[in-house]
Amino acid sequence: MHPANIRFDLNDGLSLLDVAASKSGDLILKVLDVQGRIAKTIIEKVEQGAQQLCLNMTDLNEGNYVLNAFWGGTFIQAIRFIKQ
């Protein structure tokens, strides 16, 4: 996994996550609210190479969140976003 190659776009509750992986595996995404509580956990099967994942965030309330990405149990990146 190349952490610098994760990009997150939120639009109308659906988000696009661009990922580049050096091998296949599970990408675990944990969405935390401002109090640090887990609001949502998503596990995506990722294939080797570049791909775009579509994530449904419509079930989240409006507010500030942090998306933490894990690969093989290792933290790789945090992305802050605002759900409006």
UniProtKB/TrEMBL annotation:
It comes from the Bacteria. This is T9SS type A sorting domain-containing protein. It comes from Filimonas effusa.
